[in-house]
Each structure stands twice: as C-alpha cells, then as structure tokens.
Amino acid sequence: MGRGALFLTGASGFVGGRVLRALAGRGREVRALVRGGEARLAGTGATAVEGDLVRPESYSAALSGCELVLHVAAVTGRAPAREHLRVNAEGTE
Questions:
Q1: 30 three-state secondary structure
Q2: Measured between alpha carbons, how far is residue 61 from residues 11, 28, 29, 57 in Å?
Q3: Is the whole model's pTM more than 0.85, yes or no?
Q4: How far apart are CA 61 and CA 2, in angstroms?
Q5: Low-confidence ranges of the chain (pLDDT < 70)
Q6: Domain regions of the chain by residue span
Q7: Kind plus residue range of the DSSP H or E element containing 33
Q8: Distances (CA, A) of 38 to 7, 9, 12, 35, 82
C-alpha cells in the first residue's frame, strides 16, 4: 500500500471513531465522512468531510486522490428497518 489519502466513512460513529483514532499520527492523510460536525475528529488530524452516505455527490470530490476507502458506516440498534436498508445497503452500494 502506498501513502495516498484514506477516506473513512462512519468516522463519527462507534467503530469508525476507534478506527480514526488508530490511524491518527501514522502519517497518512485521512478524510473522514461525518454527519453533523467534526467535534469527534478533534486531535486526530483528519479532515472532516460533511456528507450523507446515501448521497455520493455530497462527498465525491473528497474521494479524489484517495488510495483506499475504509467503509465502516452503519445504522445499528433501534432504527426503523427502512433506515437500516437505506444506510447499510443503499449507502454501501
């Protein structure tokens, strides 16, 4: 693997936040897809990319120059079945 930028989905979530912290300080540029702000990115050195997983046009420009996408975004828990489908299936597609 080269040294190109990484694009991380779900960076403001439970799993993505831990992945982001593991990447911090390793010398790679990280572009982190977040919903509703970048507060959880503090101290990680990542660049916040505001966007909606199911609307690729909201983050497609940030993918330019990325070598790798780490897709860990997901809806879990008590969200309605339609929201699980929308994010977990359609968002991954």
A1: strand
A2: 17, 18, 15, 8
A3: yes
A4: 20
A5: 1-2, 37
A6: 9-90
A7: strand 30-34
A8: 15, 13, 8, 8, 27
Dihedral (Cα; 81, 78, 35, 89), 10-degree rounding: -30
Structural tokens at position 38: 């970048």
**Rounded Cα gap, residues 45 and 48, in angstroms:** 9
CA dist 79 and 48 (Å) reads: 25
pLDDT at 27: 86
Strands 5-9, 47-50: parallel, antiparallel or unpaired by DSSP?
A: unpaired
Contact call for residues 17 and 30 (beta carbons, < 8 A): no
Q: What is the DSSP string of 36-72?
A: S-SGGGTTS-PEEEE--TT-GGGTGGGGTTEEEEEE-
Identify the pLDDT of residue 2. Answer: 65
Structure tokens belonging to residue 74: 């997901």
pLDDT at 56: 94
Query: What is the per-residue pLDDT for 13?
Result: 85
